[in-house]
Predict the 3D structure of the following.
Amino acid sequence: MNNQRSFFNFLVPGVIALLAIAIAGFYWFFAKSPANLIAPTSQPGAAIFVSKFAPVMTSLLVNPDKLQNLGGDGELSQIKTSLLAKSGIDYRQDIQPWLGSEITLAVTNLDIDRDPENGQQPGYLMALATKKPEKSREFIQLLFSKRVLAGSNLVTEEYKGVKLLYDNSPKQVSLAGALVGNDFVLFANDRKVLREAINNVQAPDLNLTSSPQYQKATQELPKNALAVAFLNLPTVAKWQGLELSAPSYDSQIISLILNSKGLLAETSFLATSAGVSPSAPLSQPVGALAYVPESAGLAISGANLSNLGNSDLAQLWRQATATVYGSSEEAIAKLAQPLADVQKRWGINLTADIFSWVKGEYAIALLPQKQQKTASWIFAVEKTPEVSAGISHLDAIAIAKGLSISPLTLNQQKVSTWTELTAASKPTTTKDKPPLTVEAKIQGVHTTIENYEIFTSDLETMNQVLTIKENSLIDNPNFQDSIAAIPRPNQGYIYLDWIKSQQFLERQIPILKLVEVFGKPFFHNLRSLTVSSYSSNTELLKGGVFFQLHHP
């Protein structure tokens, strides 16, 4: 079994890092010469080698040297060096002369020999496009000759007109390789994987390009995608020891596109059958964002929260959380503890007590405070006939919690507060019994401004809203640049200002610091991220995440 542990066990993390770092970590050089990074194709040519039942295939569709040439050596050279460290191979001399514009890595199956008795060993396949077949053939011979010198036993085999080379040794992990036609060099962790890859080419109905879901997915790919990944979700779940619960979506395709402002990761989830209709599209950002200060670290905006539970996003959320956590409630408790705490502290159900009466536009914002563990919040809602009843319902909940409803004037604006009143003793220097005073702790504030009802966590935040003038988030150039990268119409935005939110998020999600260490080049240069969905039919859910990155 140890011999079956291929070099792919070490190579997979490196290739994933190559895709992530080469695309995200070197983005700041792309603006200097974007024309150099136009991918020759937006679809992986190596898909013909991959089974239509494969769990995952991911491809870099540009020569990595184009990325490196724009920014020097850096992390990309370190990855190349680490991957080839024990092989005796020199990238510049042995690989660079023939490497083309595609690197594809696939998990071809969950168990190579399909025998559960001896454990599960996934099949891994790597396909490297070649622009000089003879040079690449020489490279294969060189690689295996070096492995023979290191103690491996070399075996050659002719399979359906293709020469296969593979070895087996107790001293090294196994490797199989071949040049197929004049287009691709293949490597695998077992010769069976190479044989299946060749079978997939010669019997087209076996390979990924014949999959109806893959065909639909590739129609959603944008032009000039620099990297693409396709996932067979039920098999991916099984690979990770999970079972896809109530699968509304069975396939996913992801693409990465670069522009002068940053990186757009676009994804489409393909439904098993026609599902629920997407939320109503918005042709422009909602007006409620005008009441969110530009100091906000997180802003969520859209329309008609009352329909959220019946939307395609909710359908995907239920599938994902049921698969990983068992239920949506358990997922919220683990992933969004502050949200769970709010519901518990106030004794409310957000969906029933708040979302149900939000029929119009809305904006929700968090404003991190440097000296506080919790963030201030804003909730702006477009006034509709249901809003008045919703406010009355919240007032009733507040009164039941022992809070008082108190009107006051702030910046010449009448506001209402939910206030907790407590009796306290006033300190005194005499021996007399200290007098009692009443202390007021405001738990929430709300007021009406034009056609919107505004709720805030405290008076200071409400004062920011009342004095916002031209300093709203919607007027912020960085926010405008971020949403400009998202297609319209769409279903709204989730905007996260990484610089303003980083410390707050690290307090809320401790493991985030560890993630930042592994993704240092990316997080160090991340300015913000914006998430949106822009589905237009019931057979797929389409959306994207735009990562706004610092310029050099």
Notes: Confidence is low (pLDDT under 50) at residues 1-36, 69-73.
